[in-house]
Every structure is written in structure tokens, then in C-alpha cells.
Specification:
Length: about 130
Amino acid sequence: MENSGTMIVEPISGDFSVEGYKIIRVYRSWGYYKVLQEYPGVKVKELVVEPGKSLSMQRHKYRSEFWTVVEGTGMVELNDTKVMLKAQSTIFIRPLDWHKLWNTSDRQLRIVEIQYGSECDEADIERKP
């Protein structure tokens, strides 16, 4: 199941805490993500997609996403249009845009994702069957 994963945590105090713990990595079938920073209405994540893996086709009702490729190459499908991505490529995903990300290389695909909106959490995901 796409939404199930393993969360690695360590006790901390201060920023980035979730009930007293810092989220280090959340593992998914495609790789993992880390929350780098979080403010009201904004969340910054690092996505690491393993070679040959992909995220599900999905959309968000309450947030937009801005992706910047840091390392690797991949492809994104955005509302039936496919675009190749490489280091320093950026893409903007509006609320309700269907999107899917693939790692098309033999190296990890590393992306910085900035979410903007009223609900920047994992509950705001609709997956296409």
C-alpha cells in the first residue's frame, strides 16, 4: 500500500518536533522523505526516489507543490503531459493537478519539495485508482 511506511524517529526538543520526536526519514515503497522545515501553511521536504521507482498518481486539494531536482534524472506526468527532469529543473504543481514522479535513472533522484497551502499534511492526498 502506497501510504504505509516506516518512520524512524529520535527524541529531541525544539523545532521539527511531533509529540516530542523528530522525524528523520519516512520510508515508502519508492524511497523515503524527510521533513526539513515546517511553518504554518508551508512545509519543506526532501524526497529521495530510488532507481526505477515511482510515486503514485495523485493530487492535493489544499496545497500546491514546488519541486526542484537536486540530483538525478526523472520524469513527471502533470495532467497528461510528461516532462523530463534533471538537476536544477523545477516544476510547479497547483492544487488539483494530477501528478506522478518516476526515477528514470540508475541513481537516486533527490528533490526538494516546498508545499504551500492550508493543509500541508499527508491527509491531503487523493490517489488515482
